[in-house]
Amino acid sequence: MNTFPTSRFFPPAETADRDGMVAVGGRLTPPWLLDAYRHGIFPWPFTSDVSLMTWWSPDPRAIIELDGFHASRRLLRTCRSGKFSVTCDVDFPGVIRGCASENGRAGASWLFPAMIQAYTRLFELGHAHSIEVWHNGLLAGGTYGVSLGGLFAAESKFYRVRDASKVALVYLVAHLLARGYRLFDIQQRTPHTARLGAVEIPRQVYLRRLQEAADLPVTFGTHLEY
Predict the structure, then answer these.
(1) CB-count exposure of residue 159 (10 Å: 0-12, 13-18, 19+)
(2) Three-state secondary structure of the chain
(3) 152-196 confidence digits (pLDDT tens)
(4) What pLDDT, on a 0 to 100 scale, did the predictor assign at position 1?
(5) What is the pLDDT of residues 122-132, one digit of tens each?
């Protein structure tokens, strides 16, 4: 039986405190970030001071089962209506900036400049990806996340036009299914994500499924499959 691999930078996720905090400090470099996701940990800062970066592994962990995603009939009609066009990895900087500033988040987002820079670097290296939703030629919404083998860890989403972020999720889930992903991590369950099919699983179950998913020879690809 395989044991869970040891992190280069972090204590085991199981050592997190009752709120899910694993560690404080560290660096927002690709090696640190990829090591964190590989071990069920993600950064979520309280402050823009990178030296005080906090790293988390909550218990329970929220996921959306890829075959359990729920899209309403109205949302599916919107996807088919031609109102929006959808792309992937065309405007990652625009998507992450939208996630940091739209929907009342300006000045109140955890996506501080250092976080935006770090995830943009992951994108440049092929480890982060975005789904863009366009309306009348303008970016109307989108979502982004980190890909590691058969894991996709969704980070944030935004909209400027109603339903644009939901449309992004519909296309993302369909793409992940087509590419062979096994684990769609959303970190925390909310009333909104619950309506889309989000469920909570124990951290130990998440870590076991992560180990299986991360070792799969799965890639995000260069074209959106829907």
Answers:
(1) buried
(2) CCCCCCCCCCCCHHHCCCCCEEEECCCCCHHHHHHHHHCCCEECCCCCCHHHCEEECCCCEEEECCCCCCCCHHHHHHHHCCCCEEEECCCHHHHHHHHHHCCCCCCCCCCCHHHHHHHHHHHHCCCEEEEEEEECCEEEEEEEEEEECCEEEEEEEEECCCCHHHHHHHHHHHHHHHHCCCEEEEECCCHHHHHCCEEEECHHHHHHHHHHHHCCCCCCCCCCCC
(3) 999 999 999 999 999 999 999 999 999 999 999 999 899 989 999
(4) 44
(5) 999 999 999 99
22 pLDDT higher than 60: yes
- Model confidence pLDDT, tens digit, residues 50-87: 889 999 999 999 999 999 999 999 999 999 999 999 99
Domains of the chain: 13-59 (3.30.70.3550), 62-214 (3.40.630.70)
